Each structure stands twice: as C-alpha cells, then as structure tokens.
Amino acid sequence: MSKTTTRRIAALPGDGIGPEVMRAALEILTAIGERFDLSFEVREGLIGGAAYELHQEHFPEETQTLIANCDAILFGSVGGPIEESTAEKWRDCEKNSLLGLRQRCCFHANFRPARVYQALQERCPLKKSIIGEGIDLLIVRELLGDLYFGTHETKEEAGVRVARDEARYTEEEIRRIAHTAFRAAQQRKKQLTSVDKANVLDTSKLWRAVMEEVGTVYPDVSLAHMLVDNCAMQLVQNPGQFDTIVTSNMFGDILSDTAAVLPGSLGLTPSASFNEKGFGMYEPSGGSAPDIAGQGVANPTAQILCVALLLRYSFGLDEEAKTIETAVEGVLDDGFRTADIACTGEVAISTAAFAAEVRKRILRTS
Ligand code: IPM
Ligand code: MN
Question: Which pLDDT score is estimated for 250?
Fold first, then answer.
C-alpha cells in the first residue's frame, strides 16, 4: 500500500464502554494520520446489543456488508449487564456477535498477548519475585475448531436430559494454526510452547503430532509441549518462562483469561484475529464493563493498542504502530492512571484525558 492509499477501517464500537474507548482510539488513529500524512477512512457499524436495538439481530446484514468492504476491523466490546442476560437484547449477544464475526471472516487465529509494563508492576497480581525479569508472552489460540464448532446437542434419553458437545479438529485446521504460531514465534524469542491434553484426548494427540511435523519447517524455533493443567499452573507460578503459546480453541479461551489478568487490568491488553488471507480484526481483551459504561472513566489503553496492532498487521505500518506503543508507555511512565490502574492515593484521570496524553506524545506537542 502506498502512502496515498486510503485505508478503510470498519469500527464496531458495540456496547458498554465500547463507544467511549473507541472514540479515544479513533482520536489516536487521527493523530497518526496527521503525523505520518496517512489517510484512513473509518466507517462505523452496529454490533451486539447496539445492533439489536435497531435490527433485532446482534450481527445484522448491514454490518456484514460493511466488513466485507473494509481492509480491517476495529472492534469495541459487546454484551450487557449480567443481571439482564436473559433479556432478549442481551441473550447470546457475545456468542452471536463474536462467533458470527469469526465464522463470517474465517478468523482461524487469535493473538492474545500479555505483558507486564515496568511502570505497572505493582498492579500485577503476582509477587515481584515471580514477575522476575518481566512477563511478555503471546497466546496464539485456534479460533474455528474444537468444542466451539463441533455438533452441539441436548436431548432426552430414557427420561434423562443429556447434552453433548463435540470436540473436532482436522489435521488441516491444526496445520494452519501451527504455521501461524511458528511464524509468530519467529518474530519473538523463537520459543513455542504447544499446549494440549494429549494424555487423554485424541484431538490433542493429533494436535501434538501435527505440531511436531510443522516444526520441522521452522528449525529456528524451539518447540515444547505442555499439558493444559500444568500450563494453567505455570502461568501463575512462572509466567516468565513463556514466549509464544499455541493452543486449541477451548484451552485458549481459558488460558488467555488467566494471562489477561497478569498486566494488572483487563483494560490494558489488545488482541487480534486473522484469517488465512491476513485480514484482521482487533479487539480489547476485556469486556464491555457495563458497570462503568458512560462515565468516561474506562481505560482506553487496550483499544488504543488495538489501533497499533491494526496498523502493524493489516497495513504493515510498523513505525506508526511503535509510535503508539511508545506513546502509551510514556503516558504510563509519566504516572498517568485511569481508575482501574490507579493505586490508593493516586489521582485517576478520565478516558478522554488519558487519550489526550497519548495524542500529545504522538504529535509531540508537549
Ligand atoms: C472470548 C469470549 C468468547 C469465546 C465468547 C463470548 C463466545 O469469551 O473471546 O474469549 O469464548 O471465545
Ligand atoms: Mn473468553
């Protein structure tokens, strides 16, 4: 893509804090456009409860058309308050929106990084002795197979209710995520840990065998295998040992939530999903946080860092991405805190004020 190309981004703010952190992130995108003389075309679409209000659907046709005609998706968050989860507007909202998007765009890979910022070590729930040299890991989660997309069934057998969910992987699906993960590890410290339950599950035995096969194509990356129960333990006991982790859909869902709390707040970490063509969607790791929505206090860091990932992975704009990451780190180093990461006695600033600090550093106006 040349400098003058207009890059089309579909912004799907969604529910809860989604719209306010999206606003902050789009300001950062504008600042990058100004500083680097780049042009972005942002089109907003409805998703989740916000879409349901107008279309009685969580992932309406209109949004499907929008994303079919863009170069990347910037996603906010979806879902409503737990106490209203049975209301029609919110029932299956996350599932319909997220699984709909994943299936529609064939997002087979999900990158969920977790790092502990120097300035926020105090906020990590682990002891300093465990954090050690620091934590900087990436979970690569397979996103289109396993228990999520196998057959689901609830029936009655001899008067007893029985439910069944099929875990299924083809070797092609495993090979596809294996290549993605090995390539991701190549960009990092070249240490890949494949996580499975090969002492019990057939899907895991196949997973392990295919990981080994694909590993021969990447001799520069060291591959280790770990059982998922051990990995859950190691993520808490010694997370510094991990560089890149690759795992199945279900295990990845669980392990990535464990990793997501390490930075100290769910508002800090971006994530990305990709299909085989490299088309990507960027989404904060945390949810819609309806309890603090609309108050202007949410941490916009994850959504802002999503913009950095979008620029890097969808548009190859690495310098621009680094500029955002450095600016965010600068803001944290200078002691600015939103409420979720402020320690007792520290003054918390608003979503907009935090974004303004990031913007200033990008535009070097102070
Ligand atoms: C996530 C979410 C989704 C998942 C749910 C909402 C379907 O928990 O993105 O991790 O399980 O993948
Ligand atoms: Mn999850």
Answer: 98
Report pLDDT digits (tens) over 290-317. 999 999 999 999 999 999 999 999 999 9
What token pair was written down for 3?
Answer: 């400098």
Residue nearest to atom 7 of ligand 1 (CA): 95
pTM of this structure: 0.96
Q: Which range of residues forms the domain containing residue 115?
A: 1-124+264-366
Whether 243 sits among the annotated catalytic residues: the reply is no
Contact 203, 169 (CB under 8 A): yes
The torsion region of residue 297 among left (phi > 0), alpha (psi -120 to 50) and beta comes to: alpha
Q: Is 23 helix (H, G, I), strand (E, B) or coil?
A: helix
User: The CATH number of the domain where 204 resides is what?
Assistant: 3.40.718.10
Last residue of one domain, picked from the residues 262, 278, 297:
262
Whether the per-residue pLDDT at 366 is higher than 60: the answer is no
Active site residue 253: yes
Ligand 1 center to 255 CA (angstroms): 12
